[in-house]
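Incident log, support desk, overnight shift.

02:14 A customer reports that sequence design results differ from what the structure should imply. Their input is reproduced verbatim below. On-call engineer (initials T.W.) acknowledged and began investigating.
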């Protein structure tokens, strides 16, 4: 079964274009280094079903922000470690935190073992 890195982060709506450029670059880098799939998604449906938390609430979105939900798929946890080591060593990933179009301290991240793959 595959292994997935997942991300949820608030992004200022005025910085979505800059975030998109960063995401496009990152997608190329991760895929070049072996990631099987790479998705970056922006929140579109903000409805509150009332029976669970919404992504804006989960991400602590402030006025003028939206939510990015992203994931990267790997063959296994070991494959993920190997790919991420290459990605982090890639000079194209050098981006000082002050140049990020979002606050990395507010990003949620985790590695997930796949339970169902259909």
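02:41 Re-run completed on a clean worker. Output:
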């Amino acid at each position: 079964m595959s292994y997935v890195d997942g991300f949820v982060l608030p992004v200022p709506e005025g910085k979505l274009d800059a975030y998109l450029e960063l995401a496009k670059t990152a997608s190329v880098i991760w895929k070049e280094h072996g990631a099987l799939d790479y998705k970056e998604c922006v929140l579109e449906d903000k409805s509150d079903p009332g029976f669970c938390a919404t992504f804006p609430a989960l991400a602590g979105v402030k006025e003028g922000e939206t939510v990015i939900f992203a994931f990267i798929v790997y063959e296994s946890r070991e494959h993920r470690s190997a790919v991420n080591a290459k990605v982090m060593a890639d000079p194209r990933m050098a981006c000082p935190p002050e140049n990020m179009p979002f606050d990395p301290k507010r990003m949620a991240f985790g590695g997930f073992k796949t339970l169902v793959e259909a």
